Amino acid sequence: MNGSVNGSRVLVLNSGSSSVKYQLLDMADGSRLASGIVERIGEGPVADHSAALKQVAEELAARGLGLDSPELAAVGHRVVHGGTRFTEPTLITDEVVEEIEKLVPLAPLHNPANVTGIKVARALRPDLPQVAVFDTAFHATMPEEAARYAIERETADRYGVRRYGFHGTSHAYVSRATAALLGRDVSEVNTIVLHLGNGASASAVRGGVCVDTSMGLTPLEGLVMGTRSGDLDPAAIFHLARVGGMSIDEIDTLLNKRSGLLGLCGDNDMREIGRRMGESDPAAQLAFDVYIHRLRKYVGAYTAVLGRVDAIAFTAGVGENSAAVREAAMRGLPAFGIEVDAVRNAVRGASARLISTEASRVAVAVVPTDEELEIASQTFELVAA
Ligand code: AMP
What we know:
By secondary structure, the chain is of the alpha/beta class. It has two domains: 9-134, Nucleotidyltransferase, domain 5, CATH 3.30.420; 184-371, 2-Layer Sandwich (Nucleotidyltransferase, domain 5). It is built from 15 helices and twelve strands. The radius of gyration is 21 Å and the shape is globular. The N and C termini lie close together (9 Å). The model has no long low-confidence stretch (mean pLDDT 96). The structure holds adenosine monophosphate.
């Protein structure tokens, strides 16, 4: 190891609006030393992010892993929006914090909490290198024709209206892990990554480089999600405002929090939807069908974008756990060279695995994501360089 850092441990912090998730990893062997979550910030005993991070520090200290440990090499912070300014993991300085704050209008739900987490962690350990890892960064390689919306250029540029993409840390990790599963170098493999969690996004990755993704200016675009609509005609917003008399904030809440699976059937958890489908519940069936239809459209679109697809990787809560979603998404596609093996698909497991048949030209895989490990690796790589 390089002499510029002493320890090999990285603390990963993911500061959300009402929670702080943390993991302490040892990059010498990739092991996880501690992990936890402080929830309900702002309600009850945890008054604010400062109190939450102090609790994280106390939990770690109680296990002999305190923030003052010489083994701690750096803190890695998840930051949702990097705009066009941040396309790489970035060592945090006062200037970087200011720049991330300037991006708040692009991610009003996420960046403020990320910034607060950074400020509190820097106050606790001002001497320690801290690194921002951006959810948008992996998608910065998208070519202009994929990143541009077809709207007036001057207006788009003035307000930063373009496609940024999110879940980039996961798409980066999973596309590499998929190549590793196939025993091939990532530069040789074209992959469609389907990150299906409560939020959901697809990406087209050519030789390890992202060339398109389904989320855009914000995480609202693209696939049907737990509570987000994904793609819709933007004129629906004008219609709801003019005819429905809804305000911009009401429509924002409708599309982000009360749509998607939840809006279609009242449940956003795919397990519950599966259970209800077993009882022939028509609303749950419709929600599932709309979800699958949208997913298949993106698989088709990204097949055309990539030209040659070597692998399709399912990841995150739904992608890793729902054999029914994987089966329905991949059904009837032998013309695309896609054939899922029913027995392999039904096997549960915690590690990356193939679910396609031997004959399938496209490898279909379940690849558990690990955003914390990816953030820790990128952080450590930067500070040890
Ligand atoms: P994530 O955002 O990646 O944590 O994914 C959360 C989502 O994964 C939940 O909303 C569930 O819908 C889904 N999920 C978790 N476990 C299962 C499962 N066994 N079957 C189907 N969906 C699941």
